[in-house]
Amino acid sequence: MKKRFLAALVSVFLLASCLTGCGSSGEKAGSNGELNLFVWTEYLPDSVVEKFEKETGIKVNVSTYSSNEDMLAKVKSETAGAYDVLNPSDYMVAQLIAQGMLKELDFDKLPNFSHIGDSYKNPSYDPGNVYSVPYMGGAGAIAVNTAKVDMEITSYADLFDPALKGQLVVLDDFRAVIGITAKSMGYDMNETDPDKLAEISDRLMELKDNIVLYDSDSPKSALISGDCSVGMIWSAEVAMAMEEVSTIKVIYPEEGAYLFFDNWVITKESPNYENALKWINFIMDPENMALVLEEFPYLCANTDAIAKMGDEYSSNPAKNPPAADVAKGSYVENLDSDVLDIYSEMWTKLKK
Amino acid sequence: MSKISKHEFKSNTMPAIVTVGPVAVLLVFLVVVPLILVAVMSFCQTDEYYNVVHKFTAENYRKLVSADYLKIYGQSLLIAFFTTVLCVLIGYPFSYVIARTKSKKKKLLYMLVIIPFWTNSLIRIYGWRSFLGNTGWLNSILMSLHIIDEPISFLYKTGTTVLGMVYCFIPFMVLPLYTAIEKLDGSLLEASSDLGAKPIRTLFEVIIPLTASGIFSGCIMVFIPCLGYFFVSNILGGGNTDMIGNLIERQFKSANNWPLGAALSIILILVTLLLVKCYQKAGGDMDNLGV
User: Fold this and answer.
1) Equal CATH topology for A31-137+261-320 and A138-259+330-351
2) What's the mean per-residue pLDDT of chain B?
3) What is the CATH number that goes with domain A138-259+330-351?
4) Are B43 and B62 in contact, with CB atoms under 8 Å apart?
5) Which of A119, A125, A122 is nearest to A97 (CA)?
6) Average pLDDT over residues A174-186
7) What is the separation of C-alpha A209 from the centre of its chain, rounded to a whole number of angstroms?
8) What DSSP element (H or E) covers A233?
9) I want to staple B134 with a disulfide (CB 3.0 to 4.6 A). Which of A60, A83, A214, A226 is the partner?
10) Of all residues in chain A, what percent carry a pLDDT higher than 70?
11) Are strands A330-331 and A258-266 parallel, antiparallel or unpaired?
């Protein structure tokens, strides 16, 4: 009996190891060396990576992550130079710079930077684009299934309405959810004052009964299946939900939306610096960027790529958020660890 | 005794080193060293970027007694408790039928418990999510039979978490129960009924006392891992009801506070050791735990 039990256990381990082993199969290096990419899940189509491999003869290894913090933890725990190119969001770029983990970009090798829209250049988290070039972004938009919800929702504050009890899906991201709570009260997303944070914490608890699901991986699923009728989720996820269920609408809140923008950076110890530059230049080519947008319709920094996309992309507010809403929005910023500890405690209190 | 002949050394010590040696080395590197690292880390501080700094502090343990954390420990224990009780109630009759059946299907029935075990539990839990959803199979069937008019929200409740846990852990309950019940001597049951005991009395005074060791080890094997599970409450519970496992996972990922996560893990390990100790004290056999 024990043997059989052991056999069962061994089978489980074998299955688990072949599931996890898939991502790391090392093939022979391409004729022009290698490149190790570490990017967000559901953010970069395989076809685009294959195209790059064909054009340059560089072998690309792609690994993925689903939160900035996971990425940071992984990069720190791996040997130096395990990844060449990372795909961090705004505030994480600033943090990587502050910790001296990035290498300056050689813009002589990045002629395609000219395709990036002027409003996306010179961001506050990396003044002068010394270390990063922008890729895609979006907003923490509100999705409403109008067939199921009567009330009019125009702001993050409306999400706190008791009428929405048990109907909400939100991102499983403490900075996002605490940030929109602060915004709903007229405070800053990156509030640091302990008294205001205590107020925000109380307000946050009013949201608890409305939320049924915390999901950052695929929050659209709960909206499509009908388990939730309102969501505070990535704007492109709303776009994908709208394609499945026609009664779902996207709303950018009156207070100004929570925004994020992801970037390409090269690690300090990158052993393949030249290849990394080739990749970044390749992905800024409007033609290649348009291929990405076909599959993942996020807000795009590459204005020439948007010009290549049809009206269906540019006039869809969920795919291409209106400029006025983007201008009104605000980003998550780095906070000191003693303030972040308070944020963590507020989050634990909400989820307990 | 002082002199061991060469031959004796070869016949006794060498085989022991060859067979036990590699396992011992593996255990040291995969269990002992990591455990020491976790214990050390739980007393470390972090810098402003949450990098671990090797400076002593007991602050991580002091944080663990906050009211929020105590509530999470409490509900973890409750969820694990209900899961264990349900596993016994469902698992016992099931194991009894398999173990006592005379039919040739015994092997097949036994395999039916094991086979779902071969699929990744994460995938099976996602399966439950689509089965129980508003537009899932269960609601569709109930609605097409006109039992209900509106879909019922089964998902994202604490009860759903318990359901998922029971589903994940039932084999851990069935296997030790099966072993215990199979060992049960049938003539004792005949004796009991010959002496005039009704089936219900036989059950409570003969069958259950004689299979108590199986129930006991099953409970330990369900209850302990249950405390540390996090993905079931995330996927089926919607993340509304944290368990200790969720708390630990968050410290190592989004909150990025590894020393606090390490301290929480140490507490969980201590609770586990305490439970195993109780099990031993009460006369449980470590072999039945599969260790």
Assistant:
1) yes
2) 89
3) 3.40.190.10
4) no
5) A125
6) 95
7) 26
8) strand A230-234
9) A226
10) 91
11) parallel
Measured between beta carbons, the chain B residues lying within 8 angstroms of A341 are 257
Pair A233, A143: CB distance under 8 Å:
yes
Q: What is the pLDDT of residue B38?
A: 95
Fold classified for A31-137+261-320: D-Maltodextrin-Binding Protein; domain 2 (3.40.190)
- What Cα–Cα distance (Å) separates residue A165 from each residue in A202, A203, A229, B238? 17, 15, 11, 14
Per-residue confidence at B166, pLDDT binned at 50, 70, 90?
very high
Q: What per-residue confidence (pLDDT) applies to B289?
A: 67
Distance of residue A249 Cα from the nearest chain B Cα, in angstroms: 20
pLDDT at position A21, please?
A: 39
Residue B31 lies in a domain: no
Tell me the three state secondary structure of residue A134. strand
* A window 285-324, beta carbon within 8 A of B: none
Question: What counts of helices (H) and strands (E) characterise chain B?
Answer: 15, 2
Q: Sorting pLDDT into bands at 50, 70 and 90, what band is A19?
A: very low
Q: Quick check: A90 contacting B, CB < 8 Å?
A: no
Put simply, the answer to whether B50 touches A337 (Cβ < 8 Å) is yes
pTM recorded for the entire structure: 0.84
Of B66, B242, B253, nearest to A69 by CB-CB distance is: B253
The structure tokens 């002992």 sit at B32
Q: What is the ipTM of this complex?
A: 0.84
- What is the tally of structural domains in chain B? 1
Taking only Cα atoms into account, the Rg of chain A, rounded to an integer number of angstroms, comes to 21
The HSE-up count of residue B81 (CA atoms within 13 Å, CB side) is: 6
How far does A324 lie from chain B, in Å, by closest CA? 31
pLDDT value of position B6: 60
Structure tokens at A300: 């795009």
Confidence (pLDDT) at B112: 85
Kindly state the average pLDDT of the residues A263-289. Answer: 96
**Degrees to nearest 5, angle at CA A142 with A138 and A148:** 145
Give every CB contact of residue B253 below 8 A, 6+ residues apart in sequence: A67, A69, A70, A73
**What is the pLDDT at residue A121?**
94
At A22 the pLDDT is: 40
Exposure string for B107-140, b = 16+ CB within 10 A, e = fewer: eebbeebbeebeeebeeebeebbeebbbebebbe
Backbone angles phi, psi at A37, to 5 degrees: -100, 140
Q: pLDDT at position B3, please? A: 54
Answer with the residue of higher pLDDT: A99 or B8.
A99
Contact B178/A at CB under 8 A: yes
**pLDDT recorded at residue B4:** 55
Let me know: does A200 contact A177? Beta carbons within 8 Å. no
Can you state the angle between helices B212-228 and B158-183, rounded to 10 degrees? 150
| Mean pLDDT calculated for residue range A298-305 | 94
The whole-angstrom separation of Cα A345 and Cα A340 is 9
Whether A241 and chain B come into contact, CB under 8 Å, resolves to no
pLDDT of residue A15: 46
* B113: in domain: yes
- Residue B279, domain CATH: 1.10.3720.10
Residues linked to residue A145 through DSSP beta bridges, in sequence order = A248
Structural domain span for residue B169 = 66-289
